[in-house]
């Protein structure tokens, strides 16, 4: 039997064919599957209706930003996906949005998906920075319920407890953080802060020394050590530490200028070489490789 080109009705989906009152001779008498039948549909519209939807992020990027958050198209396609709003918190933080706007993004992300661990963590840290310690404690609890062995989560909860004056809980969380990441300078620095709050400057200095040993190029770490030295009456050492801090801040400002220039000219070989050199000289070789 020779091939015959299909009639124009064969290209029309069956539901449209039926509604138009037309059918091709070859399909007029063919039984149609009932709505509850397990037989596969031959209607192209039925087949494509169950194809996977685009990912939330790709849908959001494709639909664009309307100045107030993901477009209504994204909200309609993924009403329970908080990841687009989590992305907005990063964008808002980098572009200088006010804290209330970023808070709103975090809360919307969690309203859509309460199991979104990074949103709990980011919201907790932001609330702590705003001195809203009780609310921050709730968010840290939610985060640690999802990721109990994250050292940064335990660190944040410990620092929040220090700010609230809850020494025992701070010791518990910071101790757990130290077990999980024993060489992390931020954890040693936080333990020093707790010892200062508990009026134990000798022990605080020990943690400060460990923190400086782990990261000698962090001005904040060195500043905390200077404060402890002053508190212990070791003014000469504190003065030298202050001079080191000013030097580090000047170097950091230079790197910030290089970074801003790289944002404008990301492929400039001279700028990339200067940035890599700075990172290597400051103990951040892995970042220099990138």
Give an overview in words.
By secondary structure, the protein is mainly α. The protein has helices spanning 14-19, 44-49, 56-63, 72-77, 83-94, 99-112, 117-129, 133-146, 151-164, 167-180, 185-197, 201-214, 219-231, 235-264, 269-281, 285-289. The protein contains 16 helices and no strands.
Keywords:
single chain, 290 residues, mainly alpha, 16 helices, disordered N terminus
Provide the low-confidence segments as ranges.
Answer: 1-76
The general outline is globular
Distance between the termini: 64 Å
Q: How large is the radius of gyration?
A: 30 Å
Task: Summarize the helix and strand pattern as letters.
Answer: HHHHHHHHHHHHHHHH
- What can be said about the biggest beta sheet? none
Could you tell me the mean pLDDT?
75
What portion of residues is helical? 55-70%
Number of helices: 16
Strands, count:
0
Strand content: under 5%
């Amino acid at each position: 039997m020779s091939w015959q080109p299909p009639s124009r009705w064969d290209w029309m989906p069956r539901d449209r064919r039926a509604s138009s009152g037309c059918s091709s001779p070859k399909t007029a008498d063919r039984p149609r599957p009932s709505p509850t039948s397990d037989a596969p549909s031959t209607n192209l519209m039925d087949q494509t209706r169950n194809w996977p939807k685009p990912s939330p992020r790709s849908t959001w990027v494709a639909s664009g930003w309307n100045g107030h958050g993901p477009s209504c198209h994204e909200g309609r396609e993924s009403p329970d996906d908080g990841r687009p709003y989590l992305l907005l918190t990063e964008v808002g933080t980098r572009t200088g949005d006010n804290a209330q706007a970023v808070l709103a993004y975090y809360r919307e992300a969690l309203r859509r998906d309460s199991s979104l661990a990074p949103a709990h963590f980011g919201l907790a840290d932001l609330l702590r920075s705003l001195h809203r310690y009780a609310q921050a404690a709730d968010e840290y609890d939610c985060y640690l319920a999802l990721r109990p062995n994250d050292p940064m989560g335990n660190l944040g909860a410990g620092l929040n407890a220090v700010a609230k004056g809850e020494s025992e809980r701070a010791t518990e969380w910071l101790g757990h953080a130290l077990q999980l990441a024993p060489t992390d300078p931020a954890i040693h620095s936080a333990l020093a802060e707790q010892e200062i709050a508990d009026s134990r400057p000798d022990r605080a200095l020990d943690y400060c020394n460990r923190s400086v040993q782990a990261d000698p190029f962090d001005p904040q770490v060195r500043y905390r050590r200077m404060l402890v030295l002053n508190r212990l009456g070791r003014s000469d050492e504190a003065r030298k530490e202050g001079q080191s801090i000013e030097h580090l801040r000047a170097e950091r400002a230079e790197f910030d200028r290089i970074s801003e220039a790289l944002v404008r000219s990301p492929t400039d070989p001279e700028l990339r070489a200067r940035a890599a050199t700075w990172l290597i000289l400051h103990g951040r070789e892995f970042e220099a490789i990138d």
